[in-house]
Design a protein that fits this description.
Layout lengths: L12 H25 L7 H24 L21 H13 L1 H14 L3
């Protein structure tokens, strides 16, 4: 039994090269992350933040390239629609506005004061 390999179209070659590049970058970042988690290497908070952003970006790019190359087909139900609309009830919106206006520390002080005046 022989497997015949067809030449790749020129339009696909740069996508495959990018896919391999992103895959290796993602693997390397994951190795560093695991090493940091098990305290085999020390990372500053700045480096951890940078590494998190790289993992996020490379993970998204890896997924997009995999879909583009038809290597992965995500489940339709789990895809978030491009535009999602949520309308909160007006009383929740007003409460959030008041919280933003007053500030969290004043809000907590107000709650503590109110609890002190309530008799059960």
């Amino acid at each position: 039994m022989a497997i015949e390999i067809q030449p790749l179209p020129d339009s696909i070659k740069p996508i495959i090269l990018k896919f391999v590049d992103v895959s290796l970058s993602l693997d390397f970042a994951l190795l560093i992350s695991v090493s940091a988690i098990f305290r085999k290497c020390k990372l500053s908070k700045t480096r951890i933040t940078e590494l998190s952003k790289l993992l996020r970006d490379w993970g998204q790019e890896y997924g997009a390239l995999a879909i583009n190359l038809q290597l992965w087909k995500p489940e339709i139900e789990r895809v978030i629609p491009e535009k999602t609309y949520y309308s909160a009830p007006e009383e929740i919106i007003e409460e959030e506005r008041q919280l933003a206006d007053v500030g969290i520390s004043d809000y907590l002080k107000q709650i503590i004061d109110e609890e002190g005046t309530n008799d059960f």
